[in-house]
Specification:
The chain is α+β, with helices and mostly antiparallel strands and 334 residues long. It has helices at 2-26, 32-60, 70-96, 105-167, 169-172, 174-192, 202-220, 243-254, 293-309, and strands spanning 200-201, 224-230, 238-239, 263-272, 275-283, 314-320, 323-331. Helix content is 64%, strand content 14%. The radius of gyration is 33 Å and the shape is rod-shaped.
């Protein structure tokens, strides 16, 4: 809608300025009323004809393809220019009669040549302006497709692990298995209904992470102890979906799960210098990256941060005093 309004604004300002300059230029040899009628009509039918030209070219997709067809587009613009020239000659003859300077064949040919060039310039400007918009739309479409692909790589791995957590409880503890299935359904519902813009409020991420941790608590029992410290002002901050789940899963698999006694997993969020800072801390040490689903999850998370925020967001891992901290820094708005 915004681009359509901009199009009409350019049409009115462009043809209006051109017609005004032309009217002022002929007032030395014709009356003001004759100049206004002649160039006022030129203004109206030029807008109408070039708008029809725009629709004609768009319906045929000459400028939408990967390889735009410029020759037929400019040929159509030239034909519109000849039609404009014909209308200029006809209206000039009706208004001025024998005083018209466009009655001689040579004058008609000159007018046809000069006037037909203007729509060619219009088409050149239209292509230049819209090509940038089309390139941006294509870039956004590729960005959206890349994000969807990255998200789909994460989700199957998550649901596979969650189902493994439930499988052993189906016969052993049916009520608990039912509760965990409900939590898994909550996460699935959250995943299916998340924001189309690839972000969700941190509050939603916290709820999904809590359900995930409830599933993992069955596997690790008292080896997994969770602590949340969330600043109230961060709960509405938009974050990539499955952000916390990916970080928590990585902390459990490479920290808690490797220690016989388990340990404390701490999740915190606070505002620092206008940015939201999320930390997931677990006992353990940094190890060289090895191929695997969890490492793929962190790599995908970094890619999603890059696509959504550019260089304004970051994910860093650091180790100190026997603990590993994953720190995500996000701008307040994507």
């Amino acid at each position: 809608m915004k681009s359509y309004r901009a199009y009409w604004l350019c049409q009115i300002l462009g043809w209006g300025s051109y017609s005004l300059i032309g009217a002022l230029g002929v007032m030395q040899r014709v009356s003001r009323a004759e100049a206004v009628i002649g160039y006022g009509s030129y203004f109206l039918y030029s807008i109408a004809l070039t708008h029809w030209l725009r629709g004609f070219v768009r319906r045929r997709g000459w400028l939408e393809a990967d390889r735009p067809r410029y020759v037929p587009s400019f040929a159509a613009a030239w034909a519109i220019g000849l039609l404009q020239a014909l209308m200029v000659v006809a209206i000039d003859s009706l208004i001025l009669g024998s005083r018209s300077g466009l009655l001689a064949p040579s004058a008609i040919a000159g007018a046809a040549f000069g006037i037909s060039i203007v729509p060619l310039g219009w088409m050149t400007l239209y292509i230049a302006i819209t090509s940038g918009r089309r390139a941006k739309e294509k870039q956004l479409a590729l960005r959206d497709a890349e994000l969807r692909a990255l998200e789909l790589q994460i989700n199957p791995h998550f649901f596979f692990n969650a189902l493994n957590s439930i499988r052993g409880l189906v016969l052993e503890n049916p009520p608990l298995a039912q509760d965990l299935i409900t939590r898994l359904a909550n996460i699935l519902r959250y995943n299916l209904h998340r924001d189309a813009g690839h972000t969700v409020p941190l509050e939603s991420e916290l709820e999904a992470a809590a359900d995930y941790l409830a599933l993992e608590a069955v596997r690790y029992e008292d080896r997994l102890r969770v602590e949340f410290s969330i600043a109230p002002e961060t709960r509405g901050i938009p974050v990539p979906p499955m952000l916390l789940q990916t970080l928590v899963e990585n902390a459990i698999k490479h920290g808690i799960a490797t220690l016989p006694a388990g340990g404390d997993l701490r999740v915190s969020a606070e505002m620092e210098n206008g940015a939201a800072v999320l930390r997931v801390e677990n006992p353990g040490r940094l190890i060289p990256p090895v191929p695997g689903p969890a490492r793929l999850g962190l790599a995908n998370l970094r890619d999603r941060l890059r696509i959504l925020y550019g260089g304004a967001a970051s994910l860093k891992l650091a180790a100190a005093d026997g603990r590993v901290t994953a720190t995500v820094r996000l701008p307040r708005h994507p």
